[in-house]
Amino acid sequence: xxSDNARRASGLWVVAPRQAELREEPLPERGSGxxxxxxxxxxxxxxxEMNVYRGEVSSELEVGxxxxxxxxxxxxxxxxxxxxxxxxADADSAYAVGDVxxxxxxxxxxFVVAEDFVHPLPEGLDARVAAFSNLANVALCGLLxxxxxxxxxxxxxxxxxxxxxxxxxxxxTAGTLILVDPIESRRQAAEPVGADAVVAPxxxxxxxxxxxxxxxxxxxxxxxxxPPALQTALDVTGVEGTITVLSYYGNREATVRLSPExxxxxxxxxxxxxxxxGSGLQPRWDKRRxxxxxxxLLRTVDVDAMVTHEFDFAxxxxxxxxxxxxxxxxxxxxxxxxxxxxxx
Length: 344
Fold this sequence. Notes:
CATH superfamily of the largest domain: Medium-chain alcohol dehydrogenases, catalytic domain
Helix content: 25-40%
CATH architecture of the largest domain: Alpha-Beta Complex
Largest sheet: 7 strands, mixed
Mean pLDDT: 93
Structural class: alpha/beta
């Protein structure tokens, strides 16, 4: 790599609705408390990133994503899960040159990032698998906000990456676990979870009634990103049950019928968002602990079953197009970076 290229970086930007491109820019000087890193793998989020790509968000996403670049709605560099190798750090840093780490940073081949957004990989966690760390953290936070008790009937609606991970984690304690998704290929990909039933939304209510002994779900996680699925969650949840919404709907409206289920069953709807954790847990479950636990949990999951596509970083705009135009064919989409990094 030439000295000129060593000071350049290439990042993925969304510049207009459904238009993404790679932009080259100078690599900033590293400051105190920062590391310079070279990307190895990054994971595209089919939820929030696609909402940004389609122009279906407003400026509220500025909160909680300090490593984003640009201004909403466009141009914007918005993503947050990269596995990278440390190229430079302070002498007293917790990180050394050559360390492989998870970074909350947009898709970019080389970058400078504050150590607050860098997380060491636990022993035995493969770098490709580690790219799923942030989504595993989303799933973990959902279960911290609303735990699945031993013996609970748990329903997970939406078998994207996050929903599938919620299923894996909930399986540890759920007495009955039912997974719901309209896409057959996603239902098949979720088989490693070991659920008691994996069904289409049209069959969810009947199956939940049968497997819960008529009680309905104790806990339902709505992770589909599809506003109509919130109604299905209300329908299958039982008396004083809880619907936990991990989905980010962007600026799309979610219309639900609250009578009779919501009112007569005294249900709760809880919002879960990875930037914060449930009331009372903050002092002990800070963001670094949550991320470390999420990464350790990933070692127990068959992540390869969730990877449907891999792209060279140079083809990253095509990855966005694929997810947007063929959502039924995609699940985990990885971007892989060339060895040596740097702009070319």
